[in-house]
Amino acid sequence: MAASPHTLSSRLLTGWGGGCIWYLERRATRQSPRRFLHLLRNVNQQWVTFQHFNFLRRMYVTQLNRSLKQQIKPKPEPAESPFLEKTSLDEAKAEICEMRPLVPPSLPLSRKPSEKALIGLEPASVTEGSVALGRETKEEKQWKEMKLRADDLPGILARLSKIKLTALVVSTTSAGFALAPAPFDWSCFLLTFVGTGLASCAANSINQFFEVPFDSNMNRTKNRPLVRGQISPLLAVSFATCCAVPGVALLTWGVNPLTGALGLFNIFLYTCCYTPLKRVSIANTWVGAVVGAIPPVMGWTAATGSLDAGACLLGGILYSWQFPHFNALSWGLREDYSRGGYCMMSVTHPALCRRVALRHCLALLAMCAAAPALDVTTWTFPVISLPINLYISYLGFRFYRDADRKSSRKLFFCSLWHLPLLLLLMLTCKRRVGEEGAGAPQS
Amino acid sequence: MASRRPARRLVLTALCRAFSGRGCQLAPERGAERRDAAPSRVSRFCPPRKSRHDWIGPPDKYSNLRPIHFYIPENESPLEQKLRELRQETQEWNQQFWADQNLTFHKEKEEFVRSRLKAKGLDLRTESGQKATLNAEEMADFYKEFLSKNFQKHMYYNRDWYKRNFAITFFMGKVALERIWNKLRPKQKTSS
């Protein structure tokens, strides 16, 4: 039971959690080098005509009984290009050369097919071809082959599993683990970290699997992998299973059965209750708040093995936090929700939406005051967390009164920094085991 | 049907393709039929001859859904055909629902704005010539009304969408297993 390493590791944890989020975010948004080159080539028309030139040179044009048709006997390509550019080029070539009633005037039929003659004609047909290319490939360029490439897969899976959200979930779990009154065990922590991360990835993937047509119709979600056809539904479900099974197994057998059960329950709650309920009733927001509250509880139970008052308090704080966060966010999305058929408080019960957000801001204040009474933190905590809690309550009140986009945005962005800061303050004011009630703040 | 890939990569490629859930098998390029499986609205696009995969297009103007042009291999098994037809039919059904939904939404929104502006005694155009709009609070009445009016329709759609999604994924799984089985079976003619 070492106090100092524990403090240090707790602090490292929060810092590391933040660093992790940043790192994962960068990874998920970074484009692969190949795609970048591909984009370059897309833009550069010169490359297109050069390819065209080379392709034509390899072609043999044969005549058929004075008919206007031209039959092509292409030489086998030396290497299959992975770039989309090439395939759309071939397609355009096929159209130009195949069954056109109009023969390019620069290629009179009486001329004997010879490579030298072809080269002579090429500049003219190249220009003609480029014009036709410009017209046809504009729409065709937007069509993508549904071929999964190995180097795209990590980025696609990161987006499928909502890696940023997963990182946030895992950091709340880590906070729960660090706040628990038990010696900090690195191996247990790592197992909890990985297990919760995998469970979250699985839940998010299934959520996206269910919501493809709805996601297509909302601006916020229209670039998701399943919507764009970058991955098939089967692969998404397989990935979710491959995350859920080891994740829950790791939590159940690597940590303790209670944490495993909570993880499994949370996956079920999110995928089978929250996701379908979004389109049925406004009760989905309360279910979603529970989903958000469970991860820190899991962190706590991983460390202590039991579901005690401190765990419930921590869960309660996260539960209450969800309301100002989500209600403020949904205020600006009312049109999309209505058109997509989502039952959200902001659409159907706007007054309730704002009332609930304010109510839970005040509940946060109350719960932070209760933290020392339950031996989670020292009495310093309610004092130093008062400013940020008062601020978010003030913004909640403004949102309640003004009910406009500006106040909703302010409340939403405040909630984004409020939670990490609150958890950090809790960690610094953590009640050490064996300490008396009125302790000085640990620094 | 000659294999174009070295044998050592065959199993891996088969697994990859099997899990990709698309109708892509090795087929001779020249003989591949390019039957247009997509409905007429997207038939302007024609994938390249050499391609053995489905192609996905830009979002539709009305439904915001991306149309898929399904690849039909020469040696398509009955199960694969069933999957492709189910996907095709679901695509058309989805397209119709969302196009109708979005168009209705926009039309009713316009009517609502017009009627509210008239009730307030305002012009449809402001002084600067731009279209007059209502603020978010006034629009909220419309959003609420639209949602409650179409609730039953949404319920039916949800139920059908979940059923179809599960069915498609299930068939994709079956097709994947069938392909793996065919590839691993020793040198027999593939049969469904």
What is the strand and helix layout of this fold?
The complex is a heterodimer of chains A (443) and B (192).
Chain A: H1 3-29, H2 33-43, H3 45-58, E1 60-62, E2 71-73, H4 84-97, H5 115-140, E3 144-145, H6 153-160, H7 163-179, H8 186-210, H9 212-216, H10 233-255, H11 257-277, H12 284-304, H13 309-331, H14 334-340, H15 345-348, H16 350-370, H17 380-402, H18 405-428
Helix pairs in contact in A: 1-7, 1-18, 3-5, 4-5, 7-8, 7-12, 7-18, 8-10, 8-11, 8-12, 10-11, 11-12, 12-13, 13-16, 13-18, 16-17, 17-18
Chain B: H1 10-20, E1 55-56, E2 68-69, H2 78-120, H3 136-149, H4 151-184
Helix pairs in contact in B: 1-4, 2-4
Main location (chain B): mitochondrion
Organism (chain B): Muntiacus reevesi (Reeves' muntjac)
Membrane topology (chain B): Peripheral membrane protein
Q: What labels would you give this structure?
A:
heterodimer, A: 443 residues, mainly alpha, two-stranded antiparallel ribbon, 3 strands, 2% strand, globular, disordered N terminus, disordered C terminus, B: 192 residues, 53% helix, elongated, COA8 (chain B)
Describe this structure as you would to a colleague.
The complex is a heterodimer of chains A (443) and B (192). Helices cover 71% and strands 2% of the residues of chain A. Chain A has 443 residues and is mainly α. In chain A, a hairpin with an 8-residue loop joins strand 1 (60-62) and strand 2. The two termini of chain A are 19 Å apart. Residues 1-5, 42-48, 61-121 and 436-443 of chain A have low confidence and may be disordered. Chain B has a domain at 82-184. Chain B is 53% helix and 2% strand. Chain B is built from four helices and two strands. Chain B has helices spanning 10-20, 78-120, 136-149, 151-184, and strands spanning 55-56, 68-69. In chain B, strands 1-2 form a two-stranded antiparallel ribbon. The longest helix of chain B is centred in the middle third of the chain and has 43 residues, at 78-120. Mean pLDDT of chain B is 78; it is low at 1-5 and 20-40. The interface between A and B is large, with 47 and 54 residues. Chain B: Belongs to the COA8 family. Chain B: Keywords: Membrane, Mitochondrion, Mitochondrion inner membrane, Transit peptide. Chain B: This is Apoptogenic protein 1, mitochondrial. Chain B: It is found in: Mitochondrion inner membrane.
